[in-house]
Amino acid sequence: MKDAQEWRDWLALTLQQPGDGHPGLRWQPLLPFGRRQLYCLRDVDRLPELAYLLRSRGRRWLARSAWHIVRLGLSWPRGEAMMTAAESDVLRQVLPAASGASPALIQFGSPGPFQKVVVVSTSAAGRVWVSKIAFQPGADDLVAREASWLTRLGRVAELRGSVPELVLAGRLTTGRRFLTMPAASPLASPSGLGPAHRQFLEQLCRVSVRECSWEETPLRQRLHERFRHLTCELAPSVLAGPLACWERIDSELRGKVVPTCIGHGDFAPWNINGGAHGVTVFDWEYAEDSVTPLHDFFHFQCMQRVLVSRCKLRGQWLESLLEAARLHLRFVLPTSAFPAGQIESMFALYLLDTLSLYIEASGEVDAEHRVIREYVRCLSALHPRRSIRVGGCQQPRGEIPHALVHRR
Q: The pTM is what?
């Protein structure tokens, strides 16, 4: 937000709560810059753990530093937002009636049609609640979708403790959807795929894996519709390679039986918290019933490399990735055998699924977007008979990077 007035505009226009003139809560900016502004209560006596809101260690450090500076009696950053009692009551609508909690932190998500607001609330007993509110109407479906997934996965005994518990979901008086869950461990996930990550992916796959003909999989239907739309309406030249790759993969898999399972859709460290007994995985709005058993594995590795390390998906690293994928698949589905060619097909399907999702969400092909640019390049470089082989006579040179694989 540019200033405090924009905050009030959100309260007035999105929540449509008339002010009654009585003082309520005083919110102060901890990070009043950038695209994901963070506010906390002026008189909060302790700063709740920020791992649920800030994925960047640097931004967490800045927010905590700003809070401690004020505790030393120095001034707050500019941009204080006053909220009347009636306006502050809006935020309490997303909390369980008996929780005894009050909002303490609020962060606005990245601007756009799917923008959401995350509210962290605390109680006198020390319990912490996390709520998501659709900021824009376009985010309503995503919030409802995540609530549906949390309900569904909460019924699976093997996944309890690894998926947040949904305690409340519904609509505000204006129709904006929300959901609320108790906060999990505040410990951030390590960047490497460790035993706890692997155990979660194994459990998620085993409770949902199914085999059916390629033509009947929702994965194929989803990709077919997305690329048909791209072929008919968008089809810029930058997508020539991915479109050719899709046609080849689709042709190769026709008449074959393929395994699919539930996929988180954005399985990355910034959506995972660690703990003494495993990991808790949140942000399920992009989950799918039908992805390959390697989708989340590839996403964990590739998205970090592209967004965090800002590196390309090629060369020795790619060879090591495919070999690590073979070992991971052996761990997840030990009774099945997958030739190297099938693992490469799963990698291509991951790239196609993720690329088409990015394009579908934005409604355009932004050739300068880091993920789109690198995934297009990687897909264009994939050939039917590539030189990379895993599990066969040609092995990757050197050791597999420790960040890629942890042997069982």
A: 0.84
